[in-house]
Design brief:
The complex is a heterodimer of chains A (49) and B (323). Chain A is mainly α and 49 residues long. Chain A has one helix at 8-48. In chain B, α2 runs parallel beside α9 (169-178), α2 packs parallel to α16 and α13 (225-242) packs antiparallel against α15 (254-276). Classes of the chains: A mainly alpha (49), B mainly alpha (323). Chain B: It is a multi-pass membrane protein.
């Protein structure tokens, strides 16, 4: 079966969308790391105090 | 994946992706799936529940709890959009949503909603306690299974019972701090629960054609506009005194009482205008549903005002300003 074909414009739009998606995913992952770190530190601080 | 990007029938397309900027329109669609406008009110009522609760919560954990309430509400909204994509496509108000417009794949939206649901519940349990996590899970499941899948397309009482889903946030906020539930959050639950039908029926009076086209038995479709106007009045008659319950039960002072009295009177005034505005024999407005639109706008102000007032009253009393 032939792979799907795209014009130049469609391919460029595809790459732009994929780039946006990848950056958003990166932001989400970093945010999760920060949130879980913050939760851990807050829990530790609360239990110590 | 790049193998799939081909120009013509032969050579693979070579794109210098470094020269191409990111497209954020897709991100906007994913955010739209979370129903951000609904989320605003949910976050606000959840925050008030959290602030009113006795005891202390670390500010970071409190912030995470509110984030989880927002994510959970958004996740439930996302799954709702996935399930309702067929009726959303035929309703003018919802046809441009990401799934019916073809901008987001239904399966991807469902996966997004489920992932966010699980994440929000786990994070809530981890940051605060299991009780708050369980309430959040219950509210998501209620909205998805009881309201969206069971009631919405079957009964004109859909929004009455389903309204409970939107009433959970103050209870969740309270539970995040205390690990339990008390009288005040249950009163707040009752206020949002009773507020939802007149709020939503005001909207459905002028969105009547949309619901009829989609076959959703909202009250104006199933029982007619005249009966809907009567029901809006009846529910508002229950809601107005219910707003005073925190004062009567010693949970709030006169500052809140004065606000609740005036806001309740304001909502009754709007409900009366909805009941009596010029209409034909079946109750359909002859003046473009002006009264229903005004009542809908006021209902938002009413709920936000009530919750802001009870928080203000609480702080003033805690600071000793009101004794």
């Amino acid at each position: 079966m032939e792979p799907a074909q795209m014009s130049d414009d469609e391919a460029a739009a595809f790459v732009r969308r994929r780039r946006g998606r990848n950056i958003a995913l990166l932001v989400v992952l970093v945010a999760l790391v920060v949130i879980f770190y913050a939760i851990t530190m807050a829990k530790l601080t609360s239990s110590v105090s | 994946m790049s193998d799939l990007i081909r120009r013509g029938a032969t050579a693979p397309l070579s794109i210098s992706s470094g020269a191409i900027s990111a497209d954020w329109s897709e991100l906007r669609d994913w955010v739209a799936l979370l129903k951000p406008r609904v989320m605003t009110l949910v976050v606000f009522t959840g925050l008030i529940g959290l602030l009113l609760a006795p005891g202390h919560i670390h500010p970071v954990l409190g912030t995470v709890a509110i984030l989880c309430i927002a994510l959970g509400a958004g996740a439930a909204g996302c799954i709702n959009m996935w399930y309702d994509r067929d009726i959303d496509a035929v309703m003018r108000r919802t046809a441009r949503r990401p799934i019916p417009a073809g901008r987001v794949e239904p399966g991807a939206a469902l996966a997004f909603g489920i992932t966010l649901s699980v994440l929000s519940v786990l994070m809530m349990g981890l940051a605060t306690n299991a009780v708050a996590g369980a309430w959040l899970a219950g509210s998501i499941l209620f909205y998805v299974f009881i309201y969206t899948m069971w009631l919405k397309r079957r009964t004109p009482q859909n929004i009455v019972i389903g309204g409970a889903a939107g009433a959970f946030p103050p209870v969740i906020g309270w539970a995040a701090v205390t690990g339990g539930v008390d009288v005040l959050p249950l009163i707040l639950f009752a206020i949002v629960f009773t507020w939802t039908p007149p709020h939503f029926w005001s909207l459905s009076l002028w969105a009547h054609d949309d619901y009829a086209r989609a076959g959703v038995p909202m009250l104006p479709v199933a029982a007619g506009a005249r009966e809907t106007r009567r029901q809006i009045m009846l529910y508002t008659l229950v809601l107005a005194p219910l707003g005073l319950l925190p004062v009567l039960m010693g949970q709030a002072g006169w500052v809140y009482g004065a606000y609740a009295l005036s806001l309740g009177a304001g909502f009754l005034f709007h409900a009366w205008r909805v009941l009596t505005e010029p209409q034909d024999a079946s109750g359909v407005s002859l003046v473009g549903d002006r009264a229903a639109k005004a009542a809908f706008r006021f209902s938002l102000l009413h709920l936000a005002g009530l919750f802001a007032a009870i928080a203000l009253d609480h702080w003033l009393r805690a600071a000793g300003v009101l004794g």
